[in-house]
Amino acid sequence: xxxxxxxxxxxxxxxxxxxxxxxxxxxxxxxxxxxxxxxxxxxxxxxxxxxxxxxxxxxxxxxxxxxxxxxxxxxxxxxxxxxxxxxxxxxxxxxxxxxxxxxxxxxxxxxxxxxxxxxxxxxxxxxxxxxxxxxxxxxxxxxxxxxxxxxxxxxxxxxxxxxxxxxxxxxxxxxxxxxxxxxxxxxxxxxxxxxxxxxxxxxxxxxxxxxxxxxxxxxxxxxxxxxxxxxxxxxxxxxxxxxxxxxxxxxxxxxxxxxxxxxxxxxxxxxxxxxxxxxxxxxxxxxxxxxxxxxxxxxxxxxxxxxxxxxxxxxxxxxxxxxxxxxxxx
Length: 330
Ligand SMILES: Nc1ncnc2c1ncn2[C@@H]1O[C@H](C[S@+](CC[C@H]([NH3+])C(=O)[O-])CC(=O)[O-])[C@@H](O)[C@H]1O
Prior knowledge:
The chain is an alpha/beta fold and 330 residues long. It is built from eleven helices and 17 strands. It has one domain: Rossmann fold (3-Layer(aba) Sandwich). 31% of the residues lie in helices and 25% in strands.
């Protein structure tokens, strides 16, 4: 269960944003997303967040820096307690964060992805934003830091929901209550809601078995004239190239379509998007995704061929990611 305060915050935000068609579904979606049967560790994550100590009101949140940071004075025992509680939510994959002097060095340098994306966005100031598959919410805090009026992360992972709530505990009201997380998938967004000025889908597309349906769902979430930001794994090739790996790609299950960025541009156009641009294409480096103290399992270095880093352990082209931006016609 969410604390009544978090419930209230979410409901009020949905009312303020005129998201009434979605509001009626929230109680069921929250209950399902946080159902204790979904993961054996869920009660432990909930408890860890609930046990975070009350913090002094005086704090300084910096959401517009590479490391999402909250400066707040903690006593040494408090800092130790927070460190242990945050560790209970590991593995921490998306970040980095610095919370009350605790540096969470996550598996991903998600700030590097943001650096590739941010310069190309229509300014986020005042916009209503949806981040589909937003993980722990790192990019959502950056979007709020860039001035978005309302940011909603949807991600079905309850672990990431509790990681977000832990960061929220530190941020407090310093974001003006503009950043939110709903533990559901893209399939739970009400049909044709057309409510968001910018929709992000980063690191999700290749997990979708029906890629054009995913593009259509993203389009339906956008208001006419809104902007889509699509980041995904691609392969080299022309507008006719698409690759589907076997059961695993770089050890990941559930990886389906890896088009070339030219093919993906073509698909976006076929789905009715306009002004499609590939703003970045780059290989994922071993410094961007790696094991850390906060994510101690295997990471990219273990999933590439040790003899030839240009290949995955399955012999496929190593991860290459593109960022595409497109507009829904007004
Ligand atoms: N049906 C679904 N609907 C929405 N999200 C889903 C669904 N299924 C899984 N996810 C979520 O999609 C996220 C994909 S990670 C990208 C994180 C961030 N965006 C990043 O760009 O760093 C992959 C990566 O590391 O590239 C996970 O958090 C899943 O729980």
